[in-house]
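Teaching assistant's notes for section 4

Start the section by putting this record on the projector. Ask students to predict, before seeing the second block, whether Dinitrogenase iron-molybdenum cofactor biosynthesis domain-containing protein will look compact or extended. Collect guesses on the board.
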Amino acid sequence: MSYKLAVGSSDGELVDQHFGRSERFYIYEVSDEGQWELLEVRDNVTTREEGEHHTDELSRTVDMLKDCSKVLVLQIGPGAQQRLKQIGISVYSSRGTVEDALGKLIAFENKRKNRAFLDREQAE
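Reveal the predicted structure now:
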C-alpha cells in the first residue's frame, strides 16, 4: 500500500528544514516497491500575525500535512513531534540529499516490516 511522505526542504534537493520553520514541504508518494514520485510542493505560510502564538502556526502546519503518513525533516521539536504522532503521522529526521534520505527511510521501513512479518510467523 503506497503512502504519502512530506519532506521539509528549501529546494527539493536537501533535507535542510526544521519542521516548525519549513517554508515548504515536498510531498512524495512512495510505492510498495520503494519507488517514489513527487506529487506536489506545499508552501507553509509561517507569518505570525499580531498576538498569534506559535501553537497556531503549528496547528496550521500539522493540518496541512494530515493526509501524509510520514514526515521527514532535519529537526523537529518535541511538541510538534507529539502532535504529529497523535494523528498517526510517523516522524523521521535526517540530513543530506532528499534522494539519500528517502532511500534510507524506505530501506528502514522495509526492514522493520519484514521483521514484524517474521515475528508473526515465528509466533504461529
